[in-house]
UniProtKB/TrEMBL annotation:
GO terms for cellular component: membrane. It is found in: Membrane. This is Uncharacterized protein. CDD domains: ABC_6TM_VMR1_D2_like, ABCC_MRP_domain2. Residues 143-378, 816-1087 form the ABC transporter domain. Residues 137-159, 371-448, 956-976 are annotated as: Disordered. Residues 384-397 have a biased composition (Polar residues). PANTHER family: ATP-BINDING CASSETTE SUB-FAMILY C, FI20190P1. It comes from Sporisorium scitamineum. The chain crosses the membrane at residues 6-25, 473-495, 532-549, 622-655.
Length: 1107
């Protein structure tokens, strides 16, 4: 559209001039004298810049209209109520709140209401309410004609969105409430409803007092997918803007079992949060510590026990959930490990299909037979043996720690003693933290400071841009610009000839006669009096040539600029995708977004326009300067002085604006970073009432950017004033020289009009140089990423020549060998794997266990070469993986992560993104993990419309910060979604467990020989986990499976178990062999972990060992 506008406005000025002259000489029958012609040309020149600006204004107006409409649509979206957000509370003090509802929606949706005077201020209750994620889904009905207990009758429902139905729960103050249920039953959505993140139907009332009189939140929240502020220290994330209370801080550190982790970190609790500076389990416990440290009366915990091992689970239960830090606080815990807490909970709420299926005290539910007691009984049986085992092994440091946990489990009084002991130990800060606090050493910076070049832009970057677009096109472009200026100059010269061709044209001096006689054309031209059409025709031909060359120039330029943008973007994207993981740790996401956003936008739009304007104005200025010099040769001397004065005048301006633009470019990265972090953690931020603090930080970054932008604008005003002075001097000098009498009137008019254009072009040219240099600042920043480290060179990796592997690699008889594997994420970081050696036989199932931070996920990363080894080697089917192309290596392996990656699209797109399998195969994989009914998997596979997935109540919109939106997939056969069911970005409309199952199904569909499961079922319920393990044993019986798990039941029937501790392999063998060790035997790590579990008897039975 912009290109079409530009072509239109290339033609219009020429046509306006031609039509004006035509009417003047043909219709009005006037003579186009020299004075008339060049006066008209001067006027046309004055109005040309505004005319040329019209396309930009029109396009800007259209873009602004679209942007305003998008902003208006966004601003009119439903907003959270003032009881939920601090910003809404502040705004409601001056502006009446509308919540963004349209008039027609008021009868359908009513905001949640606060309790009034007759309700206890400490009460937290949901009374007869329904909740949903979308405004269209304003009422709900059951999935089937048979209502579940507690329903109030059928109502209309939008089946495309999950909802909570008929919720009636009162959460006791100062007590523990457990929310349990199968995967996707609505447990996390219940917490979202309490936080006010779900819309409420008009029925019922929500009683919550989230903020106290000072505006502090009474709620705190630990999410299932923990959100931490990247780049901030562990301490800053726990404090989260609140004052530092040493005693309370240390109590939280101990309660969340973080002390050992902090002691192991070089920078202690001042360690910056990054992708690999802390493990997933450590992130979960930091998030938990943040929720406990906040002085809130209600703490919401979303499945915080699934990300940690058994020993840490027990520690967190005793010291965090039930410990002194939780005393007199309302704890609402979503968990799949209810058996650890049922004897201490005041209320258990069982969810299914978005409804409260059962609720009550644990004893009542057990008496009614709706709450399983096997795990609870198993835990009781385990306690005595755990205490005996711990007491018998006090010589071992790790066993002593276990004994402390067991002791606190057996005796509540002992828990206080243990806490006091630990608090006394923690009173003296770790050595590293003390050194950091005293200033003896500074903490390691996680993010490298953004580099900023100094001085003029190197010619290397100009060459980079020219090569990215094509040198041939630029050569053609220069030729077209030259022809364009010659055509324009000829047109002006022809007007001079036309004006002097009238019979009554007289000369003023002898000098003029000599000039005229010496400047005659080699052929005679007819007089203009009777042949005005001839002169008009020739002038029209020159105008046609201008249109032709100008249009060709525009086409070539757009081709060159688009090609350059595409190539530069492809290079930038490719380099970022191939960057090693460590690079993402030290590079803030806002800085990366700045490259793809602001910098690429400048390269796409501003840089091409700057080059085009500079080329046009430079050639025009050269042409007009030659005209002035040819007509008035004496102009050479003053112009030489002006040329000397110009660089001195504008040189400082260009240098200053260039550096200011560089600083301005770097100042936008924090804005992107703040925005991205706030967006990804909005639920957590609102839960803590931290919006004002983070908004203030964001506005500080915006203020810095705006102040730099304002400084650049004032410099442009400075340049404009001085450029106009120089231009005025040029016109004055030419005028004086033209009045000397040695120049004909026609030539004088041509010289004066050219000098006037020089006046304008002087400013434009300097401004174009400024814009070009500043635009190339963005190219500098993008080109910088062309030199960034890459995962793999095309042929050589650390001295190894990469090669292709056989099509059948790895074979069914191939094994994996970890040979003295050592790994660190950076040269200045400690080893996370230290000489790990073991092998995995063909078809073997191996479980990897260990406490959080022991190196389990790092071991999986090494297999995919996500991080290159620091020492040792890994062989797969007798081939060192370091010699294999990364693309080939990773295409032959599969992995299911704890936080799986799903892309926006459909279920079918996510299962088979390259369309390599038919629908029957896709459905078969989904059926194996319980996401499709078996009958459907055998149904006709010709049409997606008949192939339904049992993914009940999946929302179609993203839910930020991990809020779950889906319900159980195995208990609602009447609710089915199709293969073309939408998947939101990141799988936000799936619960965490459903996303894990879908990712597992995708791996099953690939049918690779090696599958790695990294906590792949941590967010699923026990029954779903057991089902997945059955699938692994049957569908993958010939494949190697390496399973990283905290749930010991997931790997108890595996062929072997590998135990990691502090990056070292401390134990390896079959579960039967490891459980057969004596308690006092050195290295019985696996048995000790099993003893800590409430399922010890079941684990022994599964392994074929007597308890």
């Amino acid at each position: 559209m912009t290109f079409l506008f530009e072509l239109l406005w290339i033609v219009i000025p020429v046509l306006v001039t031609l039509v004006s002259f035509f009417f003047y000489v043909k219709v009005a029958k006037e003579e186009l004298t020299v004075s008339t012609a060049f006066t008209a040309i001067a006027l046309f020149t004055m109005i040309r810049p505004p005319l040329n600006a019209i396309p930009g204004f029109l396009m800007g107006g259209l873009i602004a209209m679209v942007s305003i409409q998008r902003l208006e649509s966004f601003l009119n979206e439903q907003e959270v109520e003032e009881a939920v957000s601090q910003l809404s509370r502040q705004r409601s003090a001056t502006v009446s709140r509308s919540n963004g509802y349209k008039d027609e929606d008021i009868d359908e949706v009513a905001p949640a209401r606060e309790g009034n005077g007759d309700v206890d201020s400490s009460e937290l209750a949901i009374k007869g309410c329904g909740f949903f994620w979308h405004s269209k889904q304003t009422t709900m009905r059951p999935d089937s004609d048979e209502d579940l207990p507690g329903s109030t009758g059928p109502r209309d429902v939008d089946h495309d969105s999950f909802a909570l139905r008929d919720i009636d729960v009162s959460f006791p103050a100062g007590e523990l409430t457990l929310i349990v249920g199968p995967t996707g039953s609505g447990k996390s959505s219940m917490l979202a409803a309490i936080l006010g993140e779900m819309l409420q139907s008009k029925e019922g009332v929500v009683v919550r007092n989230k903020f106290d009189q000072q505006g502090n939140s009474r709620l705190s929240f630990a999410n299932q997918l923990p959100w931490l502020e990247a780049g901030k220290s562990v301490r800053d994330n726990i404090l989260f803007g609140t004052p530092f209370d040493k005693a309370r801080y240390e109590m939280c550190i101990h309660a969340c079992a973080l002390q050992d982790d902090l002691d192991a970190m070089d920078d202690g609790d001042l360690t910056r949060i990054g992708s690999h500076t802390v493990s997933g389990g450590q992130k979960a416990r930091i998030s938990l510590a943040r929720a406990l440290y906040a002085r809130s009366s209600t703490v919401l915990l979303d499945d915080v026990l699934s990300a940690v091992d058994t020993r840490v689970q027990n520690h967190i239960v005793e010291h965090a959930v039930l410990g002194p830090i939780a005393k007199h606080r309302r704890i609402i815990l979503v968990t799949h490990h209810a058996h650890l807490l049922t004897d201490r909970a005041a209320l258990v709420v069982s969810m299914q299909s978005g409804r409260v299926l059962h609720q009550g005290e644990p004893s009542d539910l057990q008496a009614r037979g709706v709450l399983q007691t096997s795990h609870h009984q198993g835990r009781d049986k385990t306690r005595s043996s755990l205490a005996e085992s711990s007491a018998a092994s006090t010589d071992n440091a790790d066993t002593q720690e276990h004994a402390g946990t067991a002791k606190s489990t057996l005796h509540p009084d002992a828990a206080r003693t243990t806490l006091e002991d630990r608090a006394a130990e923690a009173a003296t800060m770790p050595k590293r933290t003390a050194e950091l606090a005293s200033g003896a050493r500074t903490p390691r910076l996680l993010h490298q400071e953004e580099k900023r070049r100094e001085g003029a832009v190197s010619w290397v970057f100009y060459r980079t841009y020219l090569q990215a677009s094509s040198l041939r096109i630029w050569a053609l472009l220069i030729l077209l610009l030259l022809m364009l200026r010659l055509s324009e100059s000829f047109g002006q010269y022809w007007l001079k000839v036309w004006g002097e061709a009238y019979k009554n044209y007289g000369l003023q001096s002898v000098a003029s006669i000599l000039i005229k006689s010496s400047s005659h054309l080699p052929f005679d031209l007819p007089p203009a009096d009777g042949h005005a059409g001839f002169y008009l025709f020739v002038y029209g031909l020159s105008g046609l040539a201008v249109i032709l060359f100008n249009s060709s120039r525009a086409i070539c330029f757009y081709v060159a600029s688009i090609r350059a943008s595409q190539n530069l973007f492809a290079t930038l994207l490719g380099n970022v995708i191939r960057a090693p993981l460590r690079w993402f740790d030290i590079t803030p996401s806002g800085r990366i977004m700045n490259r793809f956003g602001t910098d690429m936008d400048c390269i796409d739009n501003i840089l091409p326009q700057s080059i085009m304007n500079l080329g046009n104005n430079a050639f025009s200025m050269a042409a007009y300067f030659l005209i002035c010099v040819v007509i008035v040769p004496a102009f050479l001397l003053p112009s030489f002085l002006l040329v000397l004065l110009g660089p001195w005048l504008v040189g400082g301006f260009l240098a200053c604006t260039r550096d200011m633009q560089r600083i301005e470019a770097t100042s936008t990265s924090p804005i992107y970073g703040h925005f991205q972090q706030a967006l990804s953690g909005i639920v957590t931020i609102r839960a803590f009432g931290a919006e004002p603090r983070l908004l203030e930080s964001m506005l500080d970054a915006v203020d810095l950017y705006q102040s730099l932008w304002w400084a650049v604008c004032t410099m442009e005003v400075w340049l404009s004033f001085r450029s106009q002075i120089l231009g005025g001097v040029s016109v004055f000098v030419v005028t004086l020289l033209a009045l000397s009498g040695a120049v004909s009137p026609g030539s004088a008019g041509l010289a004066l009009s050219s000098a006037q254009l020089l006046c304008q072009l002087a400013y434009y040219l300097v401004n174009d140089f400024k814009s070009l240099a500043n635009s190339f600042n963005s190219l500098e920043r993008v080109a910088e990423y062309q030199q960034m480290p890459q995962e793999e060179n095309d042929q050589i990796v650390a001295g190894y020549s990469t090669s292709l592997v056989p099509a059948a690699w790895p074979s069914s008889r191939g094994r994996i060998v970890f040979d003295n594997v050592s790994l660190r994420y950076a040269e200045d970081l400690p080893l996370v794997l230290k000489g790990v050696s073991f092998d995995v036989k063909p078809g073997e199932k191996v479980g990897i266990i260990g406490r959080t931070g022991s190196g389990k996920s790092s071991l999986a990363s090494s297999l995919f070469r996500a991080v290159e080894l620091s020492g040792g080697r890994i062989l797969i089917d007798d081939i060192d993986i370091k010699t294999i192309h990364l693309q080939q290596l990773r295409s032959r392996l599969s992995i299911v992560m704890q936080n799986p990656v799903l892309f926006s699209g459909t279920v079918r797109d996510n299962m088979d993104p390259f369309n390599e399998h038919d629908d029957a195969e896709v459905l078969d994989a989904l059926t194996k993990v319980g996401l499709a009914a078996p009958s459907n998997s055998r149904a006709n596979s010709g049409s997606n419309q008949d192939q339904l997935i049992d993914l009940s109540d999946i929302s179609t919109d993203a839910v930020p910060d991990g809020a779950s939106t889906s319900t159980d997939k195995t208990s609602r056969p009447n609710m089915r979604l199709r293969l073309d069911t939408p998947v939101s970005s990141g799988g936000a409309n799936f619960s965490a467990g459903q996303a894990q199952l879908l990712s597992l199904a995708r791996s099953l569909l690939r049918s690779t020989r090696i599958l790695v499961l990294d906590e792949a079922t941590s967010s699923t319920d026990m029954d779903t986990d057991a089902m997945v393990q059955r699938v692994i044993r049957t569908a993958l019986k010939d494949s190697i499976v390496i399973c990283i798990a905290h749930r010991l039941k997931s790997i108890i029937d595996y062929d072997r178990v590998v135990v990691l501790q502090d990056g070292k392999l401390v134990e390896c063998g079959s579960p039967n062999e490891l459980l057969s060790k004596q308690d006092a035997e050195e290295g019985a790590f696996f048995k000790k972990l099993c003893r800590l579990s409430a399922e010890y008897s079941e684990l022994c039975a599964a392994a074929g060992v007597e308890p």
